[in-house]
């Protein structure tokens, strides 16, 4: 079980396979387990690395203010630790935000960028958006993580045949450190790189579920600001696309990586 030290913290990662390196970055309140249905397929063609950013999974959970920038620095520190120059980066939700941050600050470290159900900013602008942010913060602070996990499981995986996926979320969410979870949530709100999207020139794949939290139109809009990006919509999927539609997700991702590696 490999670890490395960065900024006084002990961070956990996993790696397997051989070939062009692919780095997987999880979402808020999750861990390397976000990718349990991707690693077995990716490792057949690639060297696969998955990281637990600070405050998550088996990494340290320092009592300090978190930021998307600091999470991106964790990623860079891992690349340096492994002596990797450039990688394909795949990030879901908060992991996609980390990918955006990294791509605008260290573009030379990326062969490609894949963004899954994410956005380049989380900045409330209307009264309704401010109310929604306040609601999410209130619920996260007041409710226990077990209650949040149960609600999230039902929302992400509502179908009767998805009971195993619901159970996984309901079991895993309470394993989070609540203080670290809240610090990560605060790191997301107010963050953004929308004005720097034109700097992202590497091949970029944006994957959106048709029933994600934010509409497909939002992804279409920001894809238009990146010179080398395209959008793929996966139907009958919600926010956790790698889990609820693993076969279609894996095929889409592997085809994209093959096109980048073998133009």
From TrEMBL:
It comes from the Bacteria. Keywords: Hydrolase. GO terms for molecular function: hydrolase activity. The keyword Nucleus does not apply. The keyword Hydrolase applies. SUPFAM superfamilies: alpha/beta-Hydrolases. Pfam families: Abhydrolase_1. Transmembrane segments: none annotated. Residues 21-125 form the AB hydrolase-1 domain. GO terms for cellular component: membrane. This is Alpha/beta fold hydrolase.
């Amino acid at each position: 079980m490999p670890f490395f030290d960065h900024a006084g913290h002990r961070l956990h990662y996993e790696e397997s396979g051989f070939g062009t390196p692919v780095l997987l970055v999880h979402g808020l309140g999750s861990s390397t387990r976000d990718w349990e249905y991707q690693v077995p397929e990716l490792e057949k063609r690639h060297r696969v690395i998955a990281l637990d950013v600070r405050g998550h999974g088996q990494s340290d959970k320092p009592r300090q203010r978190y930021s998307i920038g600091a999470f991106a620095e964790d990623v860079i520190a891992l690349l340096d630790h492994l002596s990797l120059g450039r990688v394909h980066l795949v990030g879901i939700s908060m992991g996609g935000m980390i990918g955006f941050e990294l791509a605008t600050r260290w573009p030379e470290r990326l062969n490609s960028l894949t963004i899954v159900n994410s956005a380049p900013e989380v900045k409330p602008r209307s009264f309704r958006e401010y109310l929604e942010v306040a609601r999410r913060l209130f619920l996260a602070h007041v409710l226990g993580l077990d209650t949040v996990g149960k609600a999230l499981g039902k929302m992400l995986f509502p179908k009767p045949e998805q009971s195993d996926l619901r159970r996984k979320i309901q079991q895993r969410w309470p394993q989070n450190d609540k203080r670290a979870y809240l610090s990560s949530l605060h790191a997301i709100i107010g963050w953004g790189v929308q004005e720097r999207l034109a700097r992202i020139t590497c091949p970029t794949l944006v994957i959106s579920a048709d029933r994600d939290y934010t509409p497909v139109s939002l992804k279409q809009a920001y894809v238009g600001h990146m010179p080398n990006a395209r959008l793929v919509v996966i139907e009958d999927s919600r926010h956790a696309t790698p889990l609820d539609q693993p076969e279609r997700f894996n095929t889409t991702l592997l085809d994209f990586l093959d096109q980048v590696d073998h133009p």
